[in-house]
Amino acid sequence: MSIHSEDVVIHAISHKIRREIMELLKEGSKTFSELLNHFDISTGKLNYHLNQIKGFIRKDPKKNYNITHLGLKALEILEAIRKEFTEIERPLLKEAFISQKDSAKPLILQGINLGIGGLIFMVSVTIFLFVVFLMDPNAPIFVLPIIIVMLLGEIIGLTWVIRIRTSAPAFIERFNRHLRESKS
After folding, report:
1. Do 158 and 123 contact (CB within 8 A), yes or no?
2. Which residues in 38-124 belong to E strands, given as ranges?
3. pLDDT over threshold 70, residue 65
4. Contact status, residue 162 vs residue 119, Cβ threshold 8 Å
5. What is the pLDDT of residues 167-176, one digit of tens each?
6. Is residue 38 a contact partner of residue 21, using CB atoms and an 8 Å limit?
7. φ, ψ of residue 155 in degrees (nearest 5)
8. Strand runs (DSSP E) across the chain, as ranges?
9. What is the pLDDT of residue 109?
10. What is the rounded CA–CA span in Å between residue 28 and residue 25?
């Protein structure tokens, strides 16, 4: 397995929290609690980001986090990137940013489609339970209103999600247009 150093460094600095952790540690060592107090995130999220930048940071025997030589080098690269772009390149950066945000569109639609599939499955199960209820002469009568309410709720939910699905592309396009205009 070959390690591509650029991929490792780019991943480490690809998230704002990880960049900020390294910037804080550049100023001096910090405990987990000090880092947690700085960020408005859960302990789980902080642990996740700390694990993502192992090698760029280290925990000493006193449980303090420190930046490593590799972390300092990553911050130097980040600073060089920040300084490198001219005002002429800013519109191109904006265009790249918007196109990267557009790549979330298929993900949003996939999530909505998954919701539609889940609701169709739930409607099918509820209809199956209704048929079982009708076929069982000993079924308690109080089950019927429950099944009817479940079925109505699922059908309303399915209708609502399908409506969202049909308007999602237009909403995403309006959102992207607003984003482009506000960045100008």
Report:
1. yes
2. 57-59, 64-67
3. yes
4. no
5. 877 777 776 6
6. no
7. -65, -40
8. 30-31, 57-59, 64-67
9. 77
10. 5
93-100, Cβ contacts within 8 angstroms, sequence gap of 24 or more: 94/180, 94/183, 97/183, 98/176, 98/179, 98/180, 98/183
Report, as an integer, the average pLDDT of 141-158. 93
Higher pLDDT, 163 or 24: 24
Instruction: Give the type of residue at 1.
Output: M
Question: Three-state DSSP class for 142?
Answer: coil
Given a contact cutoff of 8 angstroms between Cβ atoms, the answer to whether 49 and 35 are in contact is no
Burial label, 56 (beta-carbon count in 10 A; 0-12, 13-18, 19+): buried
DSSP-assigned letter for residue 178: H
DSSP state of 149: H
- CA diameter of the chain: 79
pLDDT for 25-51, tens place per residue?
999 999 999 999 999 899 999 999 999
Mean confidence (pLDDT) of the chain: 86
Residue 126: pLDDT band with limits 50, 70, 90 = very high
d(CA 33, CA 30): 8
Q: In whole angstroms, how large is the CA radius of gyration of the chain?
A: 26
Contacts of 24 (CB under 8 A, 6+ apart): 30, 35, 38
- Rounded distance between C-alpha atoms, residue 145 and residue 152, angstroms: 10
